[in-house]
Design goal:
Chain lengths: 492, 319
């Protein structure tokens, strides 16, 4: 408890200042939730202050007795998510069916890594669902190709100002909005205090910089023989860019200039000295110090979780939900393992993601968005728009955008922070403050149709080329920059 | 008169008895009517995709454009493939993967078939056990083996560290030098029972009297195998090897699930590379060009397979 208070004290200063600076320029000061005041304390002060009638609000968009049919795909829960989230997903669909008993809903859950491939294939065969909930990375690709219908929060009864400006950027292409954010997330830095202590590090202090991460990782490995930092470098898996990009941005690098205030995405920066320094840090941990899991090249974050729970991993980047995942995993252990797992849970600490050498801190501003397809790409050639808007209204409502992000991220609809469930969540979900505090450091992936390939293929390829020794750090970065340039130039 | 003569000539030309193949079709028109629906389905599900893939292979399909807005680039996709270092890496991986998996699976399967051909106590149980890898789904097998190899949780690493043979678990599927052999081991584990079953079936057809005659003539066990059994199994061996080769060349599940072609393309074979190009990177044009080349290679293998089969039929399935 003392540690959390200490964390809050640190956060109070840094977060308030950073938020003020970073969000004052955002044209959302007249928003229902005042972003300029955003801080963990502010979030606590507004939680539970307003009641919302979800069914009543959505009835204004689509009458509750509306009769129709809806096909809907969504990025659902996966093996790394806590049971709590599974329950909320189940509850959502049950509630939707009760609220709209005459809408015949055919929903299909897909995992993060499968959804894009399957959705692309379905679109090519004009066999897509009427509505889809996609990861934040995917929206622009499909909007730019003309698959999506224009759709903005106002179309389902909300206001654009009810959503994070950064998230709205990810659903906007060529000045038109093509979707609504369902949830938005920033991650945090997690460490095991006991491991830190045994390795001779301050158990209550997260590494301040990425150079410290490299140093701490080595120290943990050398002293205890376990992995220091949970590096993830699997290709074609969302976990990799979510963990590497914060490091790249902190060192001052980037794919383009996406980390700047007004990105133009013109100049490729993957081969800059700063980007190379970030790649070098990963190389130092994996190759030079051998202080990260050997399996990092095939690992996903879900592989780091049991490793952390087993006390075999010192530090990692992840969601607040990882705490709940650890509790779920602990329930499944028996005998002495149960006790061991409890020790790890008791020693679980969350802090801000480290900065780069120049004090720059960054995290991926992630999340998901919900979209409606154009009829010509939908199986059967028809879209039941009122039915689609009904589910979108419900999912992006203050109530459900909060519940569906309960343990993992934050509600897309900022009014979710005002609900009673947010108040309950603040009491029940440990370390939520920390990830909320990372929000001002959130950098969205470039809102470009090429982003999925860049983030899921080219960046992980660069990491793998360097970490396997197939290329030097310089060669890997230059090669990746060349690939991004060719991609942007429309090459083969 | 000239016109009438021409019409008569035309009629004469259309007479079925003058038309060779057409005549045959005409005479068997009722038979063809029966297979017409099947032919139509084949054209839709096989011929059209082949045509469309060939067509796509001459177009560029940048990620920002819909497929219907593709740009004609002539043979650029083929040139790009053949001049790309990844092509040669992937091709060499595919050859190692296909040859390694096929030959070792065959030899191992054949050896097991020979061992199980003898009569001994527990033979039935052993046969059943050895067939298990083949009946396990490739997806499940891939996940099982991924965990077996896993350097942090895997049993192999744990045993090696436990025995003090290494202080750090080996990174079987995270290392460019060991990933392909590691995947081949999994593939062999899954495939050798197929070869075993095929060869066991073949062994049932080797006439006992020949083996007995050879024994009477003083041939030792090796000589009986090499001069009697093996020649007799030539055709079934050819078919087994060809089937395994085609399956391996086209094998997707194990490398994709276990490594996704990584690390650093070290386990990418043609089919996984094509999948990544098409579905991960939306390079439909380049992926189609790869597919056309793959199609030609598999057709060649198919040709040899059909020849081997027809050889079998001509010889009545045995000698």
């Amino acid at each position: 408890m003392t540690r959390i208070s200490l964390g809050r004290a640190v956060l109070r200063g840094t977060v308030s200042t950073a938020l003020m600076v970073s969000l004052m320029s955002v044209p959302a000061l007249g928003a229902p939730v005042d972003l300029s005041k955003w801080s963990p304390e502010y979030v606590r002060s507004i939680a539970g202050t307003q009641d919302f009638d979800t069914a009543g609000d959505c009835a204004k968009v689509t009458p509750l007795d509306y009769k129709g049919r809806l096909t809907f795909w969504y990025q659902g829960v996966f093996e790394g998510d806590p049971d709590l989230l599974r329950q909320y997903y189940k509850d959502f669909f049950e509630t939707f069916r009760k609220t709209y008993p005459n809408i015949q809903l055919e929903e299909q859950a897909l995992t993060y890594n499968d959804l894009l491939d399957k959705f692309r294939t379905a679109l090519l065969g004009n066999a897509a669902p009427m509505a889809v909930r996609l990861q934040i990375l995917g929206g622009t690709e499909f909007a730019s190709k003309g698959y999506l219908q224009p759709l903005k929060p106002e179309d389902v009864g909300y206001s654009t100002e009810d959503f994070w400006p950064g998230a709205m950027k990810a659903v906007t292409w060529d000045g038109v909005t093509y979707g609504i954010p369902t949830n938005n997330e920033t991650m945090a830095f997690i460490w095991n205090a006991d491991v830190f202590k045994r390795a001779g590090l301050d158990p209550d202090k997260a590494p301040a910089t990425w150079d410290d991460v490299v140093k701490y990782s080595k120290q943990i490995h050398d002293k205890l023989g376990i992995a220091g930092y949970g590096l993830v470098a699997r290709k074609n898996a969302g976990n990799t860019p979510y963990r590497f990009m914060p490091q790249l941005w902190a060192y001052g690098g980037g794919v383009f200039d996406e980390a700047t205030a007004s990105p133009t995405y013109k100049q490729v920066e993957l081969n800059s000295a700063q980007s190379k320094a970030a790649l070098q840090a990963s190389y130092d941990m994996y190759v030079r110090d051998k202080s990260v899991p050997v399996s990092a090249l095939t690992n996903q974050q879900a592989d780091n979780q049991p490793l952390f729970l087993a006390g075999q991993l010192g530090m990692m980047i992840s969601h607040p939900s990882d705490y709940n995942v650890m509790l779920d995993l602990q329930k499944k252990t028996t005998g002495s393992d149960k006790e061991k797992a409890q020790t790890v849970i008791d020693n679980m600490r969350y802090g801000l993601i480290p900065t780069g050498p120049d004090g720059k801190r960054a995290v991926v501003f992630g999340g998901s968005n919900i979209h409606i397809l154009k009829p010509e790409y939908v199986e059967g050639g028809k879209v039941d728009e009122p039915a689609a808007k009904a589910i979108i209204c419900m999912w992006t409502s203050p109530e459900w955008s909060l519940k569906m992000a309960y343990a993992g991220s934050n509600p897309g609809n900022l009014n979710g922070f005002k609900t009673k469930w947010m108040k309950e969540r603040l009491d029940n979900i440990k370390f939520l403050d920390v990830t909320t505090s990372m929000l001002p450091y959130g950098i969205p992936f470039p809102a470009l149709p090429q982003s999925p390939e860049i983030m899921n293929i080219i960046v992980p390829d660069m990491l793998q080329n360097a970490l396997t020794g197939a290329m030097s750090v310089d060669q890997a970065a230059d090669d990746a920059a060349k690939k991004v340039k060719a991609l942007m130039d429309g090459g083969l | 008169m000239t016109i009438l003569t021409g019409k008569a000539e035309a009629r004469r030309r259309l007479q079925p008895d003058r038309l060779g193949v057409l005549r045959k079709i005409w005479e068997h028109r009722a038979d063809y009517a029966y297979v017409l629906p099947a032919i139509a389905v084949m054209l839709i599900v096989i011929a059209y995709p082949i045509y469309y893939t060939i067509e796509l292979s001459f177009f560029n399909t940048p990620p920002g454009l819909q497929l219907r807005d593709k740009i004609f680039v002539g043979i650029d996709n083929y040139t790009a493939i053949l001049t790309s270092p990844v092509f040669w890496k992937v091709t060499s991986n595919t050859l190692i993967w296909t040859l390694g998996s096929t030959l070792i699976s065959f030899v191992l399967g054949f050896a097991c078939a020979l061992a199980l051909h003898r009569d001994f106590v527990g033979r039935g149980i052993l046969r059943a056990i050895l067939i298990i890898p083949w009946v396990i789904s490739a997806v499940a097998a891939s996940y099982i083996w991924k965990w077996i190899y896993h350097s942090d949780f895997g049993i192999i690493g744990a045993v090696l560290v436990g025995l003090g043979l290494t202080d750090r678990p080996p990174n079987f599927i995270d290392s460019v030098s060991t990933v392909l052999p590691s995947l081949i081991v999994v593939n062999i584990w899954r495939e050798f029972p197929f070869a075993m079953i095929m060869m066991m079936a073949g062994l049932q057809t080797v006439p006992d009297q020949l083996l007995r005659a050879a024994k009477v003539d003083g041939a030792n066990a090796w000589q009986r195998f090499w001069h009697v059994t093996f020649p007799h199994l030539r055709n079934v061996s050819t078919v087994t090897i060809l089937l395994l080769a085609v399956a391996n060349f086209n094998s997707f599940i194990i490398p994709w699930i276990m490594t996704g072609g990584g690390p650093s393309n070290a386990s990418h074979i043609w089919i996984t590379h094509i999948y990544e190009l098409a579905f991960g990177r939306q390079r439909w044009g380049v992926a189609s060009a790869y597919s056309v080349l793959l199609f030609l290679i598999l057709m060649s293998l198919g040709y040899f397979y059909v020849r081997a089969l027809s050889g079998n039929e001509q010889r009545g399935g045995g000698e």
